[in-house]
């Protein structure tokens, strides 16, 4: 058994037993979305939405990528998509999607 | 005509397709939420394989609730379906609101860009919880969860609002003096009482482990088979063990906690009243050097 020593929250922060969270915490995930091909049942795109409004692409098929490119959507970002797809995860949308729309 | 639809629930908890469970009903405020959105998904069920206890359109007495306890989760799936010759390219604002008497007490909104050719589905799932507090469920009355999608630009992606209401009989949310914040004591009921950071009194009702040692009020962290549990001696001389503890993990939900700081066993036994996130649980360093959480409400990681 280990006797308890009650300390203040401020002391816990000072000793590094907990963290100042607003700056250092990972952003929470508050939503997620998918796009599916009805004929094949394949999920062609999946993204999660962080609590700061950013969307994080976690999956995109080559077919979907080609469609978006052919449609002229995200054209300026496709090169970045390629990098992202080769890595684990990375925020790819601007904080505000509307801003991205204007860029495209 | 493009098909647009929405499903919304007011539930006590969910089980994700990842297998992770998060119960909000009668649990401490803002406990870390496990990963709910990384599993598989379909347009009917979203990312959840189970939704526990749909309490929409019911009356809930909230017996045994204290301010600082969560009550319900609003879970909404927005869907768009295209058939032959149809396509979508537009921006929509997906919004959830908790309301009382027409006043909004919580909002969760996100923008989505829906781009799809014919014969496709797109869907988004959003979640937002609420609990007993002066700024949320603060008094007895009818509380509603609203969901809607509004058109921002491009294709019309709007989906009419869906409203789910429930009557809650809320406990008092009165707060005690801030000078008492952080006070911890063993009560005549043998429970471990504390004044949390929101100045509400919570009680951890312990599991009776039989005749103990030490005097009433002795407090320690267990080792061996009881490793990292919180123990105390009750006024009846028995040893009591907190019914649950959870090692800090990185929350995937809004305003969640960070990854466990794991300061090391040299700090074992340090205990403090959390003053971040939920403001309603005790935090301490266990014998393994990790940060643990314990509280007066129910364990959140099992079905309600």
What is shown here, in short?
The complex is a heterodimer of chains A (104) and B (304). Chain A has 104 residues and is of the alpha+beta class.
Which segments of chain A are poorly predicted (pLDDT under 50) over 5 or more consecutive residues? Answer: 22-26, 75-104
As for the number of domains of chain B, it is 2
Q: Rg of chain B from C-alpha positions?
A: 22 Å
The total count of strands of chain A amounts to: 6
- What's the N-to-C terminus distance of chain B? 41 Å
Strand numbers in spatial order across the main sheet of chain A:
3-4-5-6
Order of helices and strands of chain B: EEEEEEEEEEEEEEEEEEEEE
Q: What number is the mean pLDDT of chain A?
A: 69
The proportion of residues in beta strands of chain B is over 45%
Class computed from helices, strands and strand pairing of chain A: alpha+beta
Number of helices of chain A: 5
Features:
heterodimer, A: 104 residues, alpha+beta, 4-stranded antiparallel beta sheet, 28% strand, disordered C terminus, B: 304 residues, mainly beta, 5-stranded antiparallel beta sheet, 0% helix, elongated
């Amino acid at each position: 058994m280990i006797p308890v020593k009650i300390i203040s929250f401020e002391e816990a922060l000072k000793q590094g037993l907990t963290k100042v969270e607003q700056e250092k915490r990972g952003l929470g995930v508050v939503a997620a979305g998918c796009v599916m091909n009805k004929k094949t049942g394949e999920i062609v795109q999946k993204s999660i939405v962080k609590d700061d409004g950013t969307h994080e692409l976690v999956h995109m098929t080559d077919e979907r990528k080609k469609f978006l490119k052919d449609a002229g959507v995200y054209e300026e970002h496709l090169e970045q998509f390629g990098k992202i797809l080769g890595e684990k995860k990375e925020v790819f949308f601007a904080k505000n999607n509307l801003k991205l729309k204007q860029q495209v | 005509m493009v098909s647009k639809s929405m499903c919304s629930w007011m539930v006590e908890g969910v089980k994700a397709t990842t297998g992770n469970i998060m119960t909000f009903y009668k649990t401490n405020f803002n406990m870390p939420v496990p990963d709910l959105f990384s599993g598989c998904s379909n347009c009917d069920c979203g990312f959840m394989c189970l939704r526990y206890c749909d309490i929409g359109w019911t009356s809930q007495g909230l017996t045994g609730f204290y301010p600082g306890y969560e009550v319900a989760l609003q879970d909404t799936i927005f869907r768009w379906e295209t058939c032959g010759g149809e396509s979508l390219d537009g921006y929509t604002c997906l919004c959830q609101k908790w309301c009382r008497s027409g006043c909004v007490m919580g909002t969760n909104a996100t923008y989505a860009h829906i781009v799809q050719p014919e014969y496709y589905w797109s869907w988004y799932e959003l979640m937002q919880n609420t609990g007993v507090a002066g700024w949320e469920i603060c008094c007895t009355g009818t509380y509603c969860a609203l969901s809607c999608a509004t058109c921002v630009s491009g294709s019309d992606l709007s989906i009419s609002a869906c409203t789910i209401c429930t009557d809650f009989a809320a406990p008092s949310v009165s707060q005690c003096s801030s000078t008492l914040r952080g006070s911890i004591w063993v009560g005549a009921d043998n429970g471990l009482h504390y004044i949390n950071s929101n100045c509400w009194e919570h009680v951890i009702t312990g599991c009776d482990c039989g005749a103990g040692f030490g005097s009433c009020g002795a407090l320690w962290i267990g080792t061996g088979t009881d490793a990292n549990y919180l123990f105390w001696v009750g006024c009846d001389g028995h040893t009591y063990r907190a019914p649950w503890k959870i090692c800090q993990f990185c929350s995937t939900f809004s305003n969640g906690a960070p990854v466990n700081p794991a300061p090391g066993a040299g700090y074992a036994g340090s205990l403090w009243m959390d003053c971040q996130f939920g403001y309603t649980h005790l935090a301490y360093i266990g014998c393994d050097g990790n940060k643990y959480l314990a509280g007066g409400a129910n364990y959140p990681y099992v079905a309600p």
